[in-house]
Write the structure tokens for this entry.
Amino acid sequence: MKDYQVIVVGGGAAGMMAAGQAAKSGAKVLLLEKKERLGRKIAISGKGRCNITNEENVSDFIRNYPGNGRFLHGILRDFDNVAVRHFLAHYGVETKVERGGRVFPVSDDAESVNKAFAAYLTEMGVTILTGITIEDILVENDRVIGVQGIGQKRFLARAVLVCTGGASYPATGSTGDGFRFARKLGHHVITPRPALVPLRTAETWVKELQGLSLRNVEASLWIGGKKKVTEFGEMLFTHFGVSGPIILTLSRQAGEERRKGETVQLRINLKPALTREQLDLRLQRDFQKYSNKQFKNALEDLLPQSLIPVMIQLSGINPERVVHQINREDRKTLLTLLQELTLTITDTLSLETAIVTAGGVDVKEINPKTMASKRIEGLYWAGEVVDVDGITGGYNLQAAFAMGFRAGRAAGEEVCSLV
């Protein structure tokens, strides 16, 4: 059986970066992936466009990781958003910046990112084996000696990097294997749970709005009757509730609070650019314009067509009423709906449907300078398997690239120093 110096388990963003860096340090590297090809999750990220990173100043990145952002402080500076873009440009992938600082390939094709990594791994001389499922990390005397695959396939190495991802989107290969390895090796695993996930609502009228996307709206999360956080941007109605970028960002906290038994509400301001007084004047102008029309035909300038029947229903105003008959109290009711459209959050969707997994290997048991285990010598962790998660906008891929970069380089340098 051919031996290697470094084995990387998992061929996603962190794993591919780690394997290349370990090889660049001079190590003989084997990259093992359970699926038939690498980068499955990269291929579907950003709706197939791949939101690689964010152009925000890296010093401000930490606040966008509700899950252990401080752990990433030095790691992100080691391989930041500028470095990611330079890396991809070197392999032929030019990038562009869109709304919210989101960085995408100019081609809008996630596969171009995978092709760049394929070129990188080839250049660095990494051996790649796909379709290999690992059952165990092999350890003797508290030191890694290799991995055990299904069917008695054994691969030996002085260092093993676990980059198996979380437990979301299992079709991409992220089925929680790394959590199982960690527990068996004595690591503490923070309970995996969904982050960046759509939300379920108690209100059934959302079904009537399925597929409606709203831009430039403001969504606020209210916990136990108190406003906690607000996001501005785009959201989407679904048959079960709500989704879209700002909802995904709020979902982590919403889920945490629901699991505590708290009452969680989402209040949507459909016209955040206007004060209540300005919106009232706007309504009055519209009502004057359509004064002789029925109420159901007087909101076309203000709202998307599919939203109008729902808003009329919630307002309690007779849709057949002539507009000039609508009184001030009715108008106040409508104003409140427009700026505080309220939904009751009952749950998140399942972990399997989440874009990102919160939880994972406890960062207290990982050396942030090397990503090495503090329990097992020669064992390293990187990517979503670690208890780190960020909001939408490219932050999670950036964290995976940076952790993989540091882990791969540290492991490569360590094994090469032992020669």
